[in-house]
Amino acid sequence: MGDPRAGRARRADAERNRRAIIEAANAVLAEQGSAVDVREIARRSGVGMGTLYRHFPTKDDLLRTVLEGEFTTWAGAAHRAADETDDPRRALREFFENALEYRARHRAVVEHCGSAWTAPAAPEPACTHLLTPVIDELRTRALAAGALRPDVTTEDLALLLAALGQVVQMTTDTCPRMWRRQLRICLDGLDPAHTEPLPRRSDGGDGACGGAGG
Amino acid sequence: MGDPRAGRARRADAERNRRAIIEAANAVLAEQGSAVDVREIARRSGVGMGTLYRHFPTKDDLLRTVLEGEFTTWAGAAHRAADETDDPRRALREFFENALEYRARHRAVVEHCGSAWTAPAAPEPACTHLLTPVIDELRTRALAAGALRPDVTTEDLALLLAALGQVVQMTTDTCPRMWRRQLRICLDGLDPAHTEPLPRRSDGGDGACGGAGG
Amino acid sequence: MGDPRAGRARRADAERNRRAIIEAANAVLAEQGSAVDVREIARRSGVGMGTLYRHFPTKDDLLRTVLEGEFTTWAGAAHRAADETDDPRRALREFFENALEYRARHRAVVEHCGSAWTAPAAPEPACTHLLTPVIDELRTRALAAGALRPDVTTEDLALLLAALGQVVQMTTDTCPRMWRRQLRICLDGLDPAHTEPLPRRSDGGDGACGGAGG
Amino acid sequence: MGDPRAGRARRADAERNRRAIIEAANAVLAEQGSAVDVREIARRSGVGMGTLYRHFPTKDDLLRTVLEGEFTTWAGAAHRAADETDDPRRALREFFENALEYRARHRAVVEHCGSAWTAPAAPEPACTHLLTPVIDELRTRALAAGALRPDVTTEDLALLLAALGQVVQMTTDTCPRMWRRQLRICLDGLDPAHTEPLPRRSDGGDGACGGAGG
DNA sequence: GATGAATGAGCGTTCATTCAT
DNA sequence: AATGAATGAACGCTCATTCAT
């Protein structure tokens, strides 16, 4: 009680718990998707339900935190990889390949890849959007190098990524290398040799889908 | 025995109910996906639980019936549309467009589009597979006309369709015409101008993913 | 409508249906006990639910009818058998043996053998009680021949029969001849060599259990 | 971690609940048999459904626990009573009397008394079988004292007990002392004065009913 | 701060009985 | 009179969240 380090110890403990929860949740969500029982996460974390709910007042909060973490580290790795690659076209291709090889195994990640569009006003500001800067960087560089259709937007690439993520999920158990074919098709479709402009995001009108996109 | 219309009258009424259930279920499943409460379907059908379960002994049976119906009419419409179109490339494009415009609004349909791969041995013989013949026909014709990369399989096209269906789901509320862009990219990627062969479905070995592929 | 035989034909038809229902119900109740689904009975009868419920306004009514029938034919057969047997002791033994061999296979019969005591005022006047006269006849004759403890009542014998019926049910699948041992024990216990009087049915007081007992 | 009493305190409360559930379940099962609604048990326990299902993951588990408890205390009491009684014949009689007086009121107990035979391989290892040792002890002692027919097995006694339990159930409401008469008859039938051997459990053949019998 | 027991609305399903035809 | 479809309360069970300790 009077020990001034008690508070600190608590803090440290709490922080350890928080991390344990996130880590366990990450594993479980990767394996089983976001429909898992919260108990399973608590069990794997080694903490009680109360602790879990103290740190994350809602299952959704936990989910969001985990996904933010995943997307953040993902974005970081992607950024570094991009910086190491000189050829912008190859950088883009490898970004997709790595994403689909290493991230699309994570069921909850893939499940929520589309949430940025599904519920853009929902309290999920940071998730898919964390990836946006990297994708945009890759896009800009590829564009500058003439390695990408000129009117491809970041959103386009993000949506293609999400879509191919679903393909990975669908086929991973029965035909794990299948997605490489669809990826190739998409990448080829992004080739600047295709000169016809892509359809407008909207017909005009007011609802121009919010994003600046380009 | 007795009035020959008696049996039929009953039948007619029951059939009306059956259809009402399927219709309501279809609507509900389209809106909310396959996780809905059966009671909601019963409510919207205007029938009691017992009636629903008399017609469909299991929620899954109902689901399957609805989806089979949906896929069957879809396949029929696609077939007719294909027959009316001379240009094989345009036929393929319009198949995708119609599919994504009219079918991909249906949450349960999209949810189950990947089940052929996820659980190929599951008791869902007729669903995605109902579409296979049409896709294969379109593919063959496009191939013959030199309007498609030579090694594109029916599976490839089905997976692209499923993937783009997810894009529709993701964007339909916030940017309903968005998917047309990703579709264009994919279609362009299918162009025979891309001469490099697609990656093999598998690395060799025994697990060649089962499908003949086409 | 005007045909005077129409009514009769209906009657005949109805009677046939009624008998079909009873017969099917008997079979089903014998096999599966009184917890069966009424639909199963209707199915096996070849009639619709409405017909079944027209003849028997309640599952319980049907049950009662079936059981009354069973008990009646049983009682008749037992009566005839008793008349054919001179030795009263043997007659009693064979009554028990036949009952347990041939009747105790009927699950619903055994289940309801005790209902005479469980709910004596219930609307089940005729069931176990249909057997009472035969048992009483056997008892009287055995008593007269000095082949039975003097104060054994008809109720005593009926209860022993019900109890042994349970034994048959318990053991029929795993040890089908087992009940003969317990029957022997009971029969031996009924031997007049046992001179000590049986306990009084009640402690006196008013509730003398209703029966005259015999 | 932390207060060592914390775990225990919870435990104590949970234990109280667990006991409350068992007690309430015991009462309800005694009154209404094993077909009761689980909600009724929860209600009477004063706990929610979740609590009940936390302690007993299945209705069957609860049932089993209650019955095991009931049979265990019963067996214990019977054992102690047997040890206090010198006269083996009287010990056997009093065992039956106590069993029928105090245990056979319990509907679920009586319902499951026959399950050892009905479903010997079912997941009910401990129930009727808990009683076997006591019965066997009583039998052995009675046999040694020449107070029992020589070829009476433990199974015979258990089946007689189950059968008489049914008699208690049948008569308890309308003639609560009735069973004493049938018990006397059975006990008299067990007298070694009856020298004729009991029928064999089986006709020979292979299916010798599994039990060693004793 | 941590614990994990408790809560209860909700889910998929069954079945005795009623009723339109 | 016969049919069998319709009804809906009830059942066994799950799980996101709360709360006493």
Automatic annotation (TrEMBL), chains A, B, C, D:
* PROSITE patterns assigned to the protein according to its UniProt record, in alphabetical order: HTH_TETR_2
For molecular function, the Gene Ontology terms on record are:
DNA-binding transcription factor activity; transcription cis-regulatory region binding
Residues covered by the HTH tetR-type domain: 15-74
Alphabetical list of InterPro entries matching this protein:
Homeodomain-like_sf (IPR009057), HTH-type_TetR-like_transc_reg (IPR050109), HTH_TetR (IPR001647), Tet_transcr_reg_TetR-rel_C_sf (IPR036271), TetR_SbtR-like_C (IPR049445)
Q: Where are the transmembrane segments?
A: none
Annotated spans, Disordered: 194-214
Q: Give yes or no: UniProt keyword ATP-binding.
A: no
What is the name attached to this protein's record?
TetR family transcriptional regulator
